[in-house]
Specification:
It contains 12 helices and 15 strands. It is an alpha/beta fold. The chain folds into 2 domains: 14-69 and 335-444, Aspartate Aminotransferase, domain 1, CATH 3.90.1150.10; 72-333, Type I PLP-dependent aspartate aminotransferase-like (Major domain) (Aspartate Aminotransferase, domain 2, 3-Layer(aba) Sandwich).
């Protein structure tokens, strides 16, 4: 498709009527980033009801791993719909459930055998993990990380401490939060090179020694790369030291890879970037190209559940399983793990080089096709600038590029198979708008 191409205001015409009806029917808790109504998504290009075309650097909110409507995924879903939309795994066996488990067993960083529990979302996978590890260990307490986001259900929200979770006002479980190594602005106010070690020392010296004894901790749940926290990538030695400390204390570790797997960071799972192994891995809708799914994959010895102890009526929907299985096959056949690493490295380098002289760009970071651009008032003070980040998202949207932001950080996660011409055009628009907005706001102030 010829994109981007803006023919009329996205919020006008048919979209205006849809938006008006939406505002009177749907919960106001939905916070839309873009004032448009989507009609078609294909190959990372979004077409709205007014015929406008956008390059999508958001992958539909992180869901559309392969850009939307990949012909092989569509055909796999159609074949499944022709035979059975779904049939509860509570009632009968499924070859798709077995096949997907076999494929995931080959790529997930879990040792000593693995078993799977299929649910409906990433949040439900978190809930399942909390129940499984509490039942297995007979312990009540859980450790999470500051800045993390794991979902909106009770357990997932308890684990989360991202600023967006403050609005949910839900009761909390027995969760203790440790500082995450956000080295650009260390939560413990250490130098960047000392941040990772300081966070480990705080976790072991304060959380485990002063807050909760290791013998009372059922598990620790973590994002190998915090996305909503601002695409925070820990220093190289952090996860190795962290995993070693958790093993020493006998605490199971659960890697939440809901939005970093499959292949988003140039590896099947992001913890593999640091050669890490987990006791459990959580997956979500990006696995099935956006269809509802959640997966708890855990070591066999932890999944010692009794029959009926935990099950899901619609978890493991056959259509979602078919989409997930084909998504993995497409990624393998098209070499998208390696491509994600290669294209992401090129995109990261380009943004860094072309924004090097921009005083409002504090840090550009990421792995694979997951990149964050942190916007600041100036590089010396590093004061977060939410206003400039918001304006850049708006300006990119105005000319046909969809990006997200989390706080003062621009969030880029284009589809793994997006064509190079779209990646280059999107990067060109992004860099241009960063420069323009920075110039406008500096003049205005």
């Amino acid at each position: 498709m010829d994109a981007p191409k803006i023919l009329s205001p996205p919020w006008s015409g048919e979209a205006k009527e849809i938006i008006s009806k939406d505002s009177s029917l749907l919960s106001r808790s939905y916070l839309r980033i873009y004032p448009m109504a989507v009609k078609e998504v294909r190959d990372g290009i979004v077409v709205d009801v007014n015929g406008n075309r956008f390059i999508d650097f958001s992958s539909g909110g992180g869901l559309l791993t392969l850009g939307g409507s990949h012909e092989r995924i569509v055909e796999a879903v159609k074949r499944q719909l022709d035979s059975a939309i779904s049939f509860s795994l509570r009632n009968a066996y499924s070859s798709l459930a077995v096949e997907l488990g076999e494929e995931l067993s080959k790529i997930l960083p879990i040792e000593r055998g693995v078993r799977f529990l299929y649910v409906n979302s990433g949040s439900e996978a978190v809930e399942a993990a909390l129940r499984v590890f509490k039942l297995h260990t007979l312990r009540e307490h859980v450790i999470g990380f500051l800045g993390g986001f794991h979902g909106s259900t009770l357990g997932a929200s308890s684990l989360s401490s991202h600023r967006s979770d403050a609005k949910r006002q839900t009761p909390k479980l027995n969760v203790h939060h440790a500082p995450y190594p956000y080295c650009y602005r260390c939560p413990l106010e250490r130098r960047p090179e000392d941040c990772g070690e300081a966070c480990i020392e705080y976790l072991t010296g304060w959380v485990l020694d002063k807050s909760v004894p290791p013998r009372d901790v059922a598990c620790v749940v973590f994002e190998p790369i915090q996305i909503l926290g601002g695409v925070i990538v820990p220093p190289e030695n952090f996860w190795e030291r962290f995993l070693r400390e958790m093993r020493r204390h006998g605490i199971p570790v659960v890697a939440d890879e809901t939005y970093t797997s499959p292949a988003r960071t140039g590896r099947w799972t992001s913890i593999e970037l640091w050669r890490g192994k987990a006791d459990a891995v959580l997956l979500g809708p990006p696995l099935s190209s956006g269809l509802p799914i959640g997966v708890l994959a855990a070591r066999e010895d932890f999944m010692d559940l009794e029959p009926g102890q935990f099950e899901s009526s619609s978890g493991g929907c056959l259509t979602s399983l078919a989409a997930a299985l084909e998504t993995l096959r497409v990624i393998k056949d098209e070499g998208l793990v390696e491509r994600s690493e290669r294209m992401g490295r090129s995109l990261l380098r380009r943004i860094r080089e072309e924004c090097d002289g921009c005083e409002n760009v504090g840090e550009v970071r990421g792995r694979g096709l997951l990149i964050g651009v942190e916007m600041v008032e100036d590089r010396e003070t590093k004061t977060p600038d939410h206003r400039i980040a918001r304006k850049i998202v708006e300006e990119c949207f105005r000319v046909g590029l969809l990006i997200e932001r989390t706080g003062n950080t621009l969030l880029l996660r284009p589809p793994l198979n997006m064509g190079e011409e779209y990646l280059e055009r999107g990067a060109e628009i992004l860099v241009t708008k960063i420069r323009e907005v920075s110039t406008w706001l500096s003049r205005a102030s």
